[in-house]
Amino acid sequence: MPTLTFWIDVDNTLLANDDVKQRQDDFLQSELGPELTKRYWDAYEQVRKEKGVVDIPFTLRRFREQIPHSELDDYTYRHAHSMFDNFPFYNFLYPEALETLQALNRIGTTVIVSDGDLNYQAEKILNSAVAEAVGGRVLLYIHKQHHLEEIMQRYPADHYAMIDDKPQILADMKKLLGDKLTTVFVKQGKYANAGFPEGFIPDVSVEHLKDLQQLPASQFYNSTTAS
User: What's the number of CA atoms in the CB half-sphere (13 Å) around residue 192?
Assistant: First the structure.
């Protein structure tokens, strides 16, 4: 059988990122109060719009710059910052996420290919045990779909499968790679019911990440939809 490499997203694919944000919001509400918490998330959205990607360290710096010390003392800010630095990401893995990675690694090569700021995203992947589960094969980009040639050079294979929760990213990659790529849509997180870009249907769709353990290797080579 031809060699197969899996490219696997992190946020809302392996890790329940919407739940992560909710837990972080709960902490900030308790620590900072509703007004300062709102201003943190405003800064978060500002940074995401400016950079086209979530960047937590930059957001925290922006937040500190925007809030006078009379409203937010350094001790309280450092305490809030520490929550992000020490967040228990392992507790927010989807059910059987690590087992699914192990199952996929038995039929191909698993590679984490994730978007986000390079420092915080790396900590998230390391501290959730995801990096260890894929033997340290982790690639981080601001926009991964812009680096396909580089990714394929790093981990060459006859065929690739992209596992992601975002239909637009899957559609972009399919447009570029065609039949060399099998798109695998995991219906988790906020994009689960968002609909597909015009003219795009994923090759494989599953309700939950763990469902991938039940699929034969041939499924990841074919343009057949599973549900």
Answer: 14
The confidence score (pLDDT) of residue 217 equals 92
Distances (CA, A) of 211 to 114, 136, 214: 21, 24, 6
Q: Do residues 169 and 145 lie in contact, with contact meaning Cβ atoms separated by under 8 Å?
A: yes
Nearest to 54, CA basis, from 150, 139, 124, 132: 124
- Quote the mean pLDDT of the chain: 93
pTM assigned to the model: 0.90
**Residue spans of the chain under pLDDT 70:** 222-227
Q: For the sheet containing 4-8, what is the strand order? A: 138-141, 109-115, 4-8, 159-164, 181-186, 204-206
Domain map (residue ranges) of the chain: 4-16+93-220, 18-89
Q: For the domain 4-16+93-220, what is the CATH superfamily, name and number?
A: HAD superfamily/HAD-like (3.40.50.1000)
Q: Tell me the CA distances in angstroms from 14 to 2, 5, 82, 164, 217, one per residue in order.
A: 26, 17, 24, 9, 20
